[in-house]
Amino acid sequence: MSTPPAGWRLQVHDQLPSTADLIREAAEAGEAERLAILARRQTAGRGTHGRSWESPPGNLYLSVLLRPEAPAREVPQWSLLVAVAVHSALLPHAGPGLSLKWPNDLLLGGAKCAGILSEAGLDPQGRLDWLAFGIGVNLAHAPPVPGRLTAALPAPALVPEAAASAIMASLDRWWAILGAEGFGAIRRAWLERGHAPGAPLTVLSPSGSHSGVFDGLDDSGALRLRTATGMETVMAGEVSP
């Protein structure tokens, strides 16, 4: 079994309903940051917008708890940081076909191989208290997702504990880069791994559907979309498909 990086505590469970539920309970109970919870199998895993996340043994089901000293408005920036960190950790095993899809999916050859779900808690004064990220990676299997192509990392499959340790170490590295260089460094790293400039995109957001071409990310991490009527900035949403 891989040893987690210094400062991290890794709990490994043979089966859980959802690592996200357990990490939220720990966060609300005051658990210190850098807790990671891994399940070899989930019975009620969930993805973005409440979708179910099929969880066969052999893939990675990991949730991590962070407590950054940051305002609540910066939560989307932390989601991008985690996406970059997961990409960096998996790249040596996935190869050059690994890319990011805004805001925090990972694609392998254009097919989804990983997803990240974020959740935040605020203190009574409305300040950020904790951040939790659920990270699912198709290490060995690519369960079908309606309307989407899916992929698993190439064989030989990474052991989930090894993948978890690599992701934790990568999170530490990118957290240090954020502290030393600011969000601009995270934004540049995401853009190097994300959509090509000018790529046609359709984004589903709370305000509706937006179609245009990708024009980068603004200083807050929001997606810039050049449409027929001008530039639009999308703070939250999902690139379709």
TrEMBL record:
A Gene Ontology term for the protein's cellular component: cytoplasm
An example molecular function term from Gene Ontology annotations: biotin--[biotin carboxyl-carrier protein] ligase activity
Key words, A-Z: ATP-binding, Biotin, Ligase, Nucleotide-binding
Main enzyme class: ligase
Residue span, BPL/LPL catalytic domain: 2-179
EC number: 6.3.4.15
Catalytic activity: biotin + L-lysyl-[protein] + ATP = N(6)-biotinyl-L-lysyl-[protein] + AMP + diphosphate + H(+)
Protein name per its UniProtKB record: biotin--[biotin carboxyl-carrier protein] ligase
